Amino acid sequence: MKKILIILTFLLVFFNLKILFAQDIIYNFNNENNLKEWMIVNDDVMGGVSTSNLSINKDSNGVFGGKISTAYNGGFASVRYNCKRIYIKEKKNIKLNIKGDKKEYQLRIKANTNDYYSYIQPFKTTGKWEEITIPLKEMYASFRGRRLDVKNFNNDYIEQITFLFGNNKNESFNLIIDSITIQ
To answer: Is the pTM of the predicted complex or chain greater than 0.90?
Structure first.
């Protein structure tokens, strides 16, 4: 009977810790992911013709890629994920485990999916696998490319995360995403 209680106690502690640490994961790509949770939003919403997609590669990573066109006043592509409310508590950073193409991207978050603006932080990729740390307090409010007179991000939760590529050039892009965590 004592052994059973010890085993049950161990299992209870183990699974509670696992749940606690799992809350740090915003998204971890793998072959079992349903990419329908992600939504492509390109400049075609305003008449542009840029294209992009999100897929899973053979290594079980997310691949956000496409082609930017500046025709018809276009020039951006994005992919967004509306997550269930993620409470930040004392967490201070979003960490991206990615491999880019030596180009600059933006990470965008929203505290509420219905907010008209996003909090953004640009980041440059090296062409190699890397872990990029984005301090939440450095993410600034922006709407349609304009910085707003709003305090930097200081909310207790997030409900949306977006990757955006827009460079005012006609070119292809490719961002490989392994995981997105909050720490």
So the answer is: no
